[in-house]
């Protein structure tokens, strides 16, 4: 059954379960707002939706800042703060372009979310194991 998911004994089309990244709020400091950069950020962060599941309460704040150091080239900083599942995930990076900074920030956030996801799964499995041992106590 390709394209169909079984959920609570009912069949649903997978199109109803499309994951989208949560609301993203953009802020710029010492630079102009660029729609192409915002679209690039949305596509990069769409890959993180798999860690968030279907969380409706997740929000993301992205700040772009142009740092100018005297007598040198411009440095661009991207800072991302993600609020999901009652936790705060944050990453920032300064690079020679906004796109490079976003790539690095996206990877850092993916690592943090993956670590948190694995920790949660481990706790759930430990709880299941304890319940199973409790139910099977004395049946050997």
N→C terminal distance: 40 Å
Radius of gyration: 21 Å
Indicate the percent of residues in helices: 25-40%
Order of helices and strands: EEEHHEEEH
Fraction in beta strands? 25-35%
- Low-confidence regions: 1-18
Average pLDDT, to the nearest integer?
Answer: 82
Q: Name the overall outline.
A: elongated
Largest sheet: 4 strands, mixed
What does it look like?
With 140 residues, this protein is of the alpha+beta class. It has a single domain, classed as 2-Layer Sandwich (Double Stranded RNA Binding Domain). It is 38% helix and 32% strand. It is built from three helices and six strands, in the order βββααβββα. It has helices spanning 35-45, 49-52, 98-135; strands spanning 4-7, 10-13, 23-29, 59-68, 74-84, 87-95. The strands form two sheets. Strands 3-4-5-6 form a four-stranded mixed β-sheet, with helices on one face. The protein has a two-stranded antiparallel ribbon with strand order 1-2.
Protein traits:
140 residues, alpha+beta, Double Stranded RNA Binding Domain, two-stranded antiparallel ribbon, 32% strand, elongated
Give a brief rundown of this model.
This protein is α+β, with helices and mostly antiparallel strands.
Sequence-ordered SSE layout with sheet pairings:
Layout: E1 4-7, E2 10-13, E3 23-29, H1 35-45, H2 49-52, E4 59-68, E5 74-84, E6 87-95, H3 98-135
Parallel strand pairs: 3-4
Antiparallel strand pairs: 1-2, 4-5, 5-6
Helix pairs in contact: 1-3
């Amino acid at each position: 059954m390709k394209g169909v998911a079984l959920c609570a004994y009912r069949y649903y089309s997978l199109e109803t379960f499309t994951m989208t990244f949560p609301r993203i709020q953009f802020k710029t400091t010492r630079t102009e707002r660029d729609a192409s950069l915002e679209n690039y950020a949305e596509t990069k962060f769409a890959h993180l939706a798999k860690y968030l599941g279907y969380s409706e309460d997740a929000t993301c704040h992205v700040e772009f800042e142009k740092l100018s150091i005297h007598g040198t080239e411009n440095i661009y900083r991207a800072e991302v703060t993600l609020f999901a599942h009652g936790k705060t995930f944050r990453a920032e990076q300064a690079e020679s372009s906004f796109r490079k900074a976003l790539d690095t920030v996206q990877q850092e956030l993916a690592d943090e979310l993956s670590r948190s996801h694995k920790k949660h799964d481990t706790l759930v499995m430990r709880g299941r194991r304890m319940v199973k041992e409790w139910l099977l106590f004395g049946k050997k």
